[in-house]
Protein 1
Amino acid sequence: MSILRKNRHAFRPTLDGTLEDRVVLNASPAAVMRAQAAGMVTPREVAQVHSLFAQQFRAANQQLQSYVQQQISAAYRNGRPTAAQLADLNNNISGAVNATALRLSAQYSTLPGSSRLTSGLQSSLLGGARNNLFSRLSTLTNNARLANNQAALTRAVNGLLNSSSQANFNQLSRFFQTNNFGRTSVSATTGQPISLTQFMGQQVQSLANNSFGALRNAFISSARTGLFANGATPTSAQFQTFARQQLPAAFNAATFPLSSALQVLPGATNSNLIPQLRTSLLGNGTTANPGLFGSLNGLGTTAGNLANFQSFQTGANNAFTSGFSNFASPLSGFFGQTTVPTSFPTTNIPSLFGSNFTGNNFFNGFNSGFGGTGLAGFGTAPTGFNTNFGTGYNSLITGVSNPLIGTGFNNTTPGFGSGGGGGFSSGGGFGTGGTTIGSGGTIGTGSGGTTIGTGGTTTVGGFVPGSMGGFFM
């Protein structure tokens, strides 16, 4: 179907209740401001957001299809693959599909009233729906006739991916055509109508806060089991090995959904927001600004932090509290907030995946994090887990798929030497994955959730209290 051309003028939502005089929608400025003041959603705004979603949907599926083709070619490099190799291929592709489901679910979660849309997407890709992509891919890779011919298998798999993608794209288009965004776009704190982009902004900020909390939980949890088990006292060298194995994977896992969501937020990719967030996480390549990554990696240089788990947890919490201010500041500036939040949730962080895909029956509990880490695929994988699923998943949540991190983990990162990276780490289990934020289009920490940090603006339900208003350039 035809999608309206993307508006060349980027715009950004403000969440502090100030209605700015500068408006960028292609309509009468006075009319747009009156509409926004009344909490109305304009057709032009919906069209622009729809265009962004269409672009990102196609990009996600093109990347998936390209990856699948590469894996099929690799499987046939030495001739017809064995049954075991075909099973590994199927698991590898399934992991990539799982990553694509998370990427699109994170984007869908920014839209009001998207619970059924997200549920339908996951069911069609991961299981639950009739003829879901998982089961149909398994049928193809287990077909003896197709296995004898690489070209035939490639054509069959490409056709299946195309038909599945088209069906889900049609569902997304119908959602934009039928959803009453003027009714469903409401403030999380006041319940009053707001513009669609303002609604997306509050969802993205909640997702960011939850991502930070999930990263904190996973890092401390993995350190408890990997370094301090049974009262052990690790050396500085042991901590550095642990950090080199686990930190890159945890950062990729926690930030991937946020990176995905930012791709559909109007104005986000045309601003300095993503580079600023990346610097807050990874630093700028100097010891003067190590970022959160460098601060966590440096915990082992202070002997007191490794004396026992309680001391380590205190040091880690201090690093996360300090790092959150630097992380939240660019978001607050982008959204026009006058106060930077200083606390983030650490409990009641729900999953973007539906309950059917977070239990142990779904790839050994991959999407809820092995050992309860809370990050999809992060932690020590249980015996019997097919690591090819993790390989496929990891391949689609890193690099160009995750601009918040990109290729940031290298020897120039302060405190981080060579040999680091995500994936499967010796002695530390599997360390990569998505994150656990938002379910069925609803993002929030839940009432009564624990927060880390003091002062400033406190998060409630995963979002900063306050009224909504206008746009600014």
Protein 2
Amino acid sequence: MDPWLVMGRPVAVAGVIVVVLLALSAPLLGIKMGGINPNILPADDSIRIAQTAVAAEFPNASEGATLVLRGENGAPPPAAVAQIMAEAQRVEGVRLVVQVAEKNDIVLLRVLLSHPDFSSGSEDSVRSIVLMNALARQTSILP
């Protein structure tokens, strides 16, 4: 490329470069990033069939969601933890909420969902739990 062309018409050259870069990146517009899950496999794949059967026959084997509750000055009060567990239990798509650990200023809750992991239903349930107003009162939550 002639350096005088670039120096003489920098805006036009920059415009052409931007248009070319946009054209090259167009295929990435519809891309969705996500975790690895069996739903990316063909429906007749043996691994996907096995995963679907395990999820149907053993619903508690799903990963579900883990909620990390952190108190402001020490562990969250038991009443606040109980309230969060009760409100999370009422979210659509939640089957069971259990406290699995407590240490220092952190309480760990396990949420078992009725939707398969990585599905839009499970994502909606987790979003609903995180957005609950009660979670912001005395405890911060890290989804």
Protein 3
Amino acid sequence: MRGALAKTYIKHLEHLPTLSRALRKLSFNAYELAKTILNHLHTLSRGLRAYIFLIYGFAKIIKFNATAGVMADASIPAPKLFLIAAIAIELICGLALLIGYRTRPVSLLLTLYLIPVTLVMHAFHMFANGQLCRSKWYRCSRTWRLWAAY
């Protein structure tokens, strides 16, 4: 009985190099597939981010005077000059992202551009007469700050 079991075991060990090569090939194919999918996802993600900046850049061109008026209401000095700069940044960087030209420096530039834009142009709902509103947005942010401090 033991001799038959040992022969079966040895017989299976003979196929081990073939099995090992098959597993290596399978894992290599899975790695290549994952790498290809990630490359396509990076391209899709880059294209969607570029789309956002291009659309809003063209929207600023189409509604130039209205956007300049909103910027003037936000107490931005020389709103038309800053609007032209914002349009140039959004269109040039959006196009650069779309074609994949120097994506890391372009993304850094867009991030640095979005910080003051967010604080000046998109934070209007948080302030009323210079005071922070006690709205659901403030309570939510306070909850997150307390959670982060914990």
